Amino acid sequence: MTGAGPRTALAVGPHLDDAVFSAGGTLRALVAAGWRVRVVTCFTASVPDPTGFALSTQLDKGLGADIDYMALRRAEDQEAQRRLGTRRPVHLPLPEAPHRGYHSPAALFGDPLPEDDLTHALATHLRPLLRDADLVLGPQALGAHVDHRLTTRALLAFGVLPRLALWRDAPYAVRCPDARPDGTVRGTAALTEVSVDVTGHLTAKVNAVLAYATQLGFQFGGEENVPGAVRAAARGDAVAA
């Protein structure tokens, strides 16, 4: 834990955009209150020459096969964090699920593959970052995406529970209001729901969300729909703590 000086918050997201889409209002509120805030994203590695389902995840966003999709997304995330006023983001060199043997949309939302054991890799990268944070934020894994589930399980396994807050994953929380958190969250009795008032920070969140240009059509149906969607999802900044 930190001593004298500004308190620190570390937000751990599975994908580039998850922390901002889900808890951007909270992150901005912390910055405004004088906290030092940093976002860490777990699965951001570029994979040369993607094929099959992995390639389709960029083709369906209008990006050609010759584009380094993850490099583009990392740059978007840096701009989003600049707009929120957080510190320079950390991008861990782990590949997204489509590059780890999950070859269909159904597989992405199924159980983690037995051979997809990222416990050691996540621990290696996250433990030194988590050590001194006064507050740790991460996903509840609503929607059951395998990368979200693995991130949530890693955070719960690291012994940070007294300083852990879990956000409602967007856009899943909006698309499926009855979606339930990962079973590891439901089995943690110490977690209770807390609502964070982010009313005064929604404009900053909208501006940060707009930085993820590659995702706006796929996730929101276009840039013009972002302000309404962000305001409708404001409860997504509620956390379990």
TrEMBL record:
Stored Pfam families: PIG-L (PF02585)
UniProt superkingdom: Bacteria
Coiled-coil region list: none
Database matches in InterPro entries: GlcNAc_PI_deacetylase-related (IPR003737), LmbE-like_dom_sf (IPR024078)
Any GO BP annotation: glycoside metabolic process
Keywords carried by this UniProt record: Zinc
Protein's UniProt keywords contain Transit peptide: no
Stated name of the protein: PIG-L family deacetylase
Organism: Streptomyces bauhiniae
